[in-house]
Design goal:
Length: about 150
């Protein structure tokens, strides 16, 4: 294969990977009885720790009212709680519950383990190249997200 053909094939594989991520995310949302916006919010809270609703609005790119609706659904589902910020009594923090954390581990640990096993076949130099590619792909993708 020529360099151009390899680049085209990488592009195709990335497209297929994105479709696979989307299908996986849909399956997770269905399993949890949530919609994709709810699962995005839950992922943010799980990954970044307790956050104020306003911070979630910014991360989700939703209005405060829409964010409140998402939080309400996640509270009803038992995945997040609203807690008073100990440093500022007027601020409420959204925090993942133990149920959310254990559910996330149950869903994502097998995928993580399979990914680690698949990557084990590469040597450290190849892994650095893969990591560099992923960082570059993320940067390129993010630079075109705010159209």
């Amino acid at each position: 294969m020529s360099k151009d053909e390899i680049i085209a094939e990488i592009g195709m594989q990335l497209r297929l990977l994105q479709e696979s991520f989307d299908a996986f995310d849909e399956a997770v949302a269905a399993r949890l009885g949530l919609n994709r916006t709810d699962t995005r919010c839950l992922d943010i809270v799980l990954g970044r720790g307790p956050l104020a609703a306003g911070e979630l609005s910014v991360q989700l790119k939703l209005s405060p009212a829409a964010t409140t609706t998402v939080i309400d659904r996640l509270v009803r589902a038992g995945f997040v709680t609203r807690n008073q910020d100990p440093a500022n009594r007027r601020r409420v923090l959204i925090e993942a519950t133990e149920t959310a954390q254990s559910t996330a581990a149950e869903i994502f640990t097998p995928v993580s383990q399979a990914g680690a096993k698949a990557l084990a076949r590469y040597n450290p130099t190849q892994l650095h190249t893969i990591l560099d590619f992923l960082r570059t792909a993320l940067e390129v993708h993010q630079s075109h997200t705010n159209m």
